[in-house]
Design a protein that fits this description.
The chain is an alpha+beta fold. The chain is 66% helix and 11% strand.
């Protein structure tokens, strides 16, 4: 078995355990939240059910992304994991909307909450969420897996909020603590969710990876011996950890192109982690190519 396949199987195994543990405790929290009257617990249970969907979706799209290239899909189905991340992000937005609507309703009409029961269930939920988060945080962190992990971490924060709200209600009897903390959790989750969605859309729009500077990459390529200039440079993400690059290189002599190509590939791999490279050599006079990015060595 190849190392990549081994890591994939290990990730699926971990997600299965995470899914079983999350689903089991989501049922406990849902019953506990209904019995105690706690919106914080019900919200956290809703998070955990959404986690189950997220983990299932992550496992499925990761499996789809493993399919090899075909005549119809020359890159394979690598982008499936990005679509999975997007869907997980949209699910989180629905959960946030539900929390906000319920919290506003509870602020207008406070309902009795069993503080002691909330604290006990939330404490157990905190331990469960920490365990699941640790389970998923090992290994390669793809955008798709990060989306699932975001669900779990939001649950962890939700458990902390439920624990605090239960303590406040138990010791002071102040009922608004429950919906107010729920709104705070919704705000934190919204920030992380929007960040995830923005990154996923950036990949789908074939934007330059955030950890790379296109100008610097072009300058390093133009600095290779025998290269006169670089233009029509494009850098984009195929999937998490898979960056592609294409460019036109104006060279002094086509006879030395094999050496230039090898040097460019080694440099791009070692300095920028780019392995999917397509380069076209050209022997040209003049600058031309208006509208394209043209980089000259300093």
């Amino acid at each position: 078995m190849k190392p990549h396949d081994f890591h994939f199987q290990e990730m699926i195994h971990r997600m299965r355990w995470a899914l079983l543990i999350t689903f089991a405790f989501a049922l406990v929290e849902a019953v506990g939240g209904w019995w105690s009257g706690s919106l914080a617990l019900l919200s956290d249970a809703g998070h955990m059910f959404s986690d189950c969907i997220a983990l299932s979706l992550t496992a499925f799209t990761s499996w789809v992304a493993k399919h090899p290239p075909s005549r119809r899909h020359s890159y394979g189905l690598l982008r499936a994991e990005i679509i999975g991340a997007l869907l997980n992000g949209f699910i989180m937005l629905l959960v946030i909307i539900f929390i906000v609507v319920e919290a506003v309703s509870r602020l207008r009409q406070p309902q009795p909450v069993a503080g002691a029961a909330v604290m006990a269930i939330a404490a157990v939920g905190l331990v469960v969420n920490i365990f699941v988060a640790l389970l998923l945080s090992h290994g390669e962190q793809t955008l798709n897996l990060r989306a699932a992990l975001l669900h779990v971490i939001s649950d962890l924060i939700g458990s902390v909020a439920a624990l605090i709200s239960g303590a406040v209600i138990f010791f002071t009897g102040w009922l608004p603590a429950d919906p107010i903390l729920s709104l705070g959790v919704a705000g934190l989750i919204l920030y992380s969710t929007l960040s995830l969605l923005r990154e996923a859309f950036h990949v789908l729009m074939e934007g330059v990876p955030s950890n790379l500077q296109m100008e610097l990459v072009g300058q390093r390529m133009a600095g290779i011996e025998g290269v006169r200039s670089v233009h029509d440079l494009h850098i984009w993400t195929l999937a998490s950890g898979r960056v592609a690059l294409s460019a036109h290189l104006e060279v002094h002599d086509l006879n030395v192109w094999p050496k230039i190509l090898e040097a460019a590939k080694i440099m791009l791999h070692q300095q920028f982690g780019i392995d999917h490279v397509t380069l076209q050599p050209e022997v040209l006079k003049g600058q031309g190519y208006q509208g394209s990015i043209r980089i000259y060595p300093k």
